[in-house]
Specification:
The complex is a heterodimer of chains A (470) and B (216). Chain A has 14 helices and 14 strands. Chain A is of the alpha/beta class and 470 residues long. The chains are: A alpha/beta (470), B mainly alpha (216).
């Protein structure tokens, strides 16, 4: 029988106190002096370290090494497969899309002018999503490519691990002013789960005010002059730097001093500059907003989040739209919501064009829907059908339309379901990894890919080559 | 014999009641050790026997930061609506776990703005009291301008705030920083009494939002 190693009970628990919350409680429990003397004997001598001896180095910056990564999650299970037509393993149309609202192949018409590949159009002519794309991106689509990811997922669920923002963050996409952002109050800012790695806690953006407040002081400090606010910022920064010196002697925390220094430097700049930059006029036009638009208007919120990402101010952006559980026995609701989603994606792409930046847009949904079995496109949506799930990603490059080697990753079967025998087919987490791999390829930074997905992982070698489409 | 049986019956009943009470107390015991409910914190036997962290320092989580700010400024249990609103606005940007690497610019910005509202509440409370009854700003005359108040009054306030916020007196480095701040801020505080309030609002905010208030 092996030796059992007893873990040490914290002192506050030994003495029967509750976990300290206040500094007073920490002092009363004896935790603070005990912790310092027992674990950091060498640090006691650092209390006299001269202020200013440590200079911040390697502060995270948006150096432009990675393009913006925007996720749009359509909560409820959108019928993406009735807009972007999934194909078989040979890239040919299925014989029929009768159960997924597309009719038979003989009765449907593809749009072969928007983002075609080898002469094949990915979208159903007249589909809501396509109509929205064209309305939202009147000029950007010419420099955009799209790839479908054929993946089954759970219907009406927040458990699907589609989110790639943690992987993108780890690869190095960091904002200079703002953290990664999301629209939902969840660990990743969306109603789904993160694949492989969880991102840092996002800034939850429910209105433009959330962003502006993050780049400035509010409440009681609001009425002080800019100079006075700057003095407060410098005081916080300099005191924190002095106080963090105790961490330098510990290998486990030495980098924290630098984080604190960098945080102070950044905030000093922001406060001195007077707060958040305003949404440029060009993007106001793209999104149809102006100075009088309500701060919590969805278009206004999305516009500002996307802007800050494209400007390098913010990191990964996770957006969510609701109302996609639209199997109400009609097609009207679904078409309206699909158009709204396409419009949002189109506007994101058009924003990138307006700012002359590359962008990667990833569209996900929890499951999908099924229609009455009909030979004609446009049948009503009647129930959930996660086996027919699909994700999409769009890549815009102002220099030229990205070249791709296919229309989709994985494929659908003649049974009109995602083929679950492919790497992506049965696992949203693997689908997210495949999307991430394509993002890194699009960014021209496959050297950073293995920082996140090790070479020992399943997504490597021939499997990795098999999912790359860029 | 009948009396003896009645006696034993009573004893048995009393013992049964005590056993029941003991069981109930034991089962409810974990809640007695539970800290205020908050964001990202829960007490469990796993936590009690958790291995010591590699780092001996931790960051307070969002809710812990809020509670601590209230505690150390003497406003525990009396949060104002403005303070609650500011916390609601900032909570997502404050730390969700106790890892020190959560520190970043938005977190520091959020902590400072929240500290500002806490200090605003503290000042409102103390200004309403006679000077002798104040805990932090006993030597400050809020009816006079910053120039008409003394550096000694500032030093005294700083000492009290440091003890409460950081659990210790300010170090010599910190004192130098605060004195520089005092000189610079006072010079631009103007001749009105409002300048004094702004000076102490700023000093309190700066100290409350400093790193040592929300790490342990």
């Amino acid at each position: 029988m092996g030796k059992v190693v007893k873990k040490e009970m914290p002192m506050w628990a030994k003495t029967g106190h509750s976990k300290p919350v206040s500094r007073r409680e920490f002092l009363a429990s004896g935790l603070l002096p005990f912790a310092v003397s027992a674990f950091v004997p060498g640090a006691l001598g650092l209390l006299g370290t001269p202020f200013g001896a440590h200079a911040a180095t390697n502060c995270p910056t948006s150096s432009g090494i990675l393009p913006s990564f925007i996720t749009l999650n359509l909560a409820g299970g959108a019928g993406l497969n009735a807009n972007f037509l999934p194909r078989d393993a040979g890239n040919q149309l299925l014989p029929s899309y009768s159960k997924i609202g597309g009719g038979t192949a003989a009765n449907l018409v593809t749009n072969n002018t928007v983002m075609p590949w080898n002469g094949m159009g990915p979208f159903l002519q007249g589909s809501g999503f396509l109509n929205g794309l064209q309305a939202g991106a009147p000029t950007a689509l010419a420099n955009t490519s799209v790839i479908g990811v054929c993946v089954q997922s759970r219907d009406d669920s927040s458990e699907n691990p589609f989110d790639a923002s943690g992987m993108v963050f780890k690869a190095g996409l960091v904002g200079s002013m703002l953290p990664n952002m999301g629209t939902e109050r969840t660990p990743n800012g969306l109603s789904n789960k993160s694949a492989v790695i969880s991102p840092p806690t996002p800034l939850v953006v429910s209105s433009v005010t959330s962003i502006n407040n993050s780049i400035g002081y509010t409440a009681a400090l609001r009425n002080l002059s800019t100079a006075q606010k700057a003095q407060i910022s410098r005081l916080v920064s300099s005191l924190s730097t002095a106080q963090a010196a105790k961490l330098n002697s510990l290998s486990s925390t030495a980098q924290v001093q630098n984080l604190i220094d960098c945080a102070g430097l950044k905030n000093n700049e922001l406060i001195a500059a007077g707060g958040a930059p305003a949404l440029p006029a060009a993007l106001q036009t793209v999104w149809g907003v102006n100075a009088n638009t309500a701060a919590n208007n969805e278009a206004n919120v999305f516009a500002n989040m996307v802007y800050h990402s494209l400007a390098g101010n913010g990191g990964v952006v996770n957006l969510q739209m609701g109302g996609y559980d639209y199997h109400d026995g009609s097609r009207n609701t679904g078409n309206t919501r699909d158009t709204a989603a396409g419009t949002a994606v189109g506007r994101i792409l058009e924003s990138a064009k307006a700012m002359g930046q590359k962008i990667f847009v990833y569209v996900t949904s929890d499951g999908s829907v099924t229609s009455n079995d009909s030979a004609n496109p446009g049948a009503n949506w009647v129930s959930d059908r996660g086996t027919g799930g699909l994700a999409l990603f769009f890549m815009f490059d102002p220099a030229a339309r990205p070249q791709t080697s296919g229309l989709q990753i994985g494929n659908f079967t003649n049974g009109q379901v995602a083929n679950d025998s492919t790497f992506v087919g049965s696992d949203p987490a693997q689908a997210a990894q495949a999307v991430f791999a394509n993002y890194m390829k699009f960014a021209g930074r496959m050297d950073l890919f293995n920082r996140v997905i090790p070479t020992s992982a399943p997504l490597s070698g021939a499997v990795l080559e098999g999912v790359l489409r860029v | 014999m009948k009396k003896l049986n009645m006696k034993w019956k009573r004893i048995s009943l009393i013992l049964a009641a005590m056993a029941g009470l003991s069981t109930l107390s034991f089962n409810c015991a974990p809640s007695m050790f539970q800290a205020p409910k908050g964001h990202g914190f829960s007490f469990s036997s796993f936590d009690v026997f958790a291995a010591p962290k590699v780092s001996p320092y931790s960051l307070m989580t969002s809710r812990q930061t809020y509670k601590t700010f209230l505690n150390v400024t003497g406003q525990e249990g009396a949060a104002t609506t403005a303070q609650q609103n500011e916390y609601d606005l900032r909570s997502a940007t404050l730390a969700t776990t106790d890892r020190l690497t959560n520190v970043n610019a938005p977190l520091q910005m959020a902590a400072t703005s929240l500290a500002g509202e806490m200090c605003n509440g503290l000042l409102a409370k103390e200004i309403a009291l006679p000077a002798a009854s104040r805990r932090f700003f006993g030597q400050v005359d809020f009816a006079r301008s910053a120039a008409q108040n003394t550096p000694a009054a500032f030093d005294a306030a700083v000492g009290m705030m440091a003890t409460s916020f950081w659990g210790r007196a300010p170090s010599s480095e910190e004192s130098k920083l605060l004195n520089s701040f005092y000189t610079e801020f006072s010079a631009g505080a103007g001749t009105a009494a409002a300048g004094t309030r702004n000076l102490y609002l700023a000093a309190c905010t700066g100290m409350l939002a400093a790193f040592d208030t929300y790490n342990y």
